[in-house]
Q: What sequence folds into this?
C-alpha cells in the first residue's frame, strides 16, 4: 500500500534537517514549491508543513513562510507525557539512572502538597534521564504510598515513575509551574553543565480520582531543551 503523499513530503523535510542540509532558522520551500516538486496539490503540501509545525519541527510565520525550528527537543506545556515516550517519539534512545529510591518522612512542604500530615512516610525517588547518551532531565519525585503501593519495587531503568503511576492511578488532574533557575552544583554535575547555566524547572502535582498522587520537580538544561505547545480554538460563530 502506497504511503500518503504528505507523509513523503514530511520525510523529505525531516531528512534534510537531520542531514543538516537545512539548519535552525533556514527557510524551507513554500507550499507551491513542494506541490510542484512532488506533483501534488497545494493542500497536500500545506498539510505536510502544518503537521511539521504542530510537531515543533517547523515554525510557520504568516506572510514569511516556514522555517526550521530550534533544534533542541521540545515538550508540550499543554500535555503531560512520560520522558521516555517523548524521547522515543523523536526516534531517539532513552536511558534512566536511579540516583535515590526509598522512603522518607514528609516535611512540612511535602506533606502540605500531598495533603498528608507532617512526618507521614512517603516514597522518594531521584532519577537522571538521558537522550542518546546526553543528560536531559533530573527528576525528583515524592509519592503518596496509597496510590503507588509497589513504587519501591519497580525497576525505573525499565519503566519510568510517570508511566508506572499512570498505570495504577490514572491521571485526572494536574497543575504545574515553569520557571528559569540555576541549580545546585551536584545537580549541575549530573546534568553535565556549568553551575551557572540556566535550567528550566518544572514543578508538577498530579491527582487521580481518589486524591493527590505525587509531586515532582524536573530540571532541564536550558541549552538542550525547550517547552512549547500548539493550541487550536474554535472559530467565532
A:
Amino acid at each position: 500500500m502506497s504511503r500518503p503523499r504528505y507523509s513523503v513530503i514530511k520525510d523529505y523535510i525531516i531528512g534534510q534537517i537531520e542531514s543538516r542540509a537545512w539548519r535552525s532558522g533556514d527557510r524551507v520551500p513554500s507550499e507551491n514549491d513542494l506541490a510542484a516538486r512532488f506533483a501534488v496539490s497545494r493542500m497536500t503540501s500545506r498539510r505536510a508543513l502544518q503537521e511539521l509545525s504542530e510537531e515543533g519541527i517547523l515554525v510557520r510565520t504568516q506572510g514569511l513562510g516556514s522555517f526550521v525550528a530550534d533544534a533542541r527537543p521540545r515538550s508540550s506545556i499543554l500535555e503531560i507525557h512520560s520522558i521516555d515516550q517523548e524521547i522515543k517519539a523523536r526516534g531517539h534512545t532513552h536511558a534512566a539512572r536511579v540516583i535515590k529510591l526509598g522512603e522518607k518522612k514528609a516535611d512540612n512542604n511535602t506533606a502540605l502538597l500531598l495533603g498528608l500530615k507532617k512526618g507521614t512516610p512517603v516514597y522518594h525517588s531521584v532519577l537522571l534521564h538521558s537522550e542518546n547518551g546526553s543528560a536531559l532531565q533530573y527528576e525528583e519525585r515524592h509519592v503518596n504510598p496509597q496510590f503507588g503501593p509497589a513504587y519501591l519495587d519497580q525497576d525505573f531503568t525499565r519503566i519510568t515513575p510517570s508511566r508506572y503511576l499512570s498505570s495504577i492511578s490514572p491521571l485526572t488532574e494536574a497543575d504545574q509551574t515553569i520557571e528559569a533557575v540555576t541549580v545546585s552544583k551536584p545537580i549541575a554535575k549530573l546534568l553535565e553543565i556549568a553551575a551557572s547555566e540556566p535550567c528550566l524547572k518544572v514543578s508538577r502535582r498530579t491527582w487521580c480520582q481518589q486524591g493527590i498522587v505525587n509531586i515532582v520537580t524536573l530540571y532541564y538544561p536550558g541549552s538542550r531543551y525547550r517547552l512549547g505547545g500548539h493550541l487550536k480554538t474554535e472559530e467565532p460563530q
The chain is about 25% helix and 30% strand. The helical segments are 5-18, 31-38, 42-54, 83-89, 108-114, 161-168, 185-191. The first strand starts at residue 58 and ends at 61.
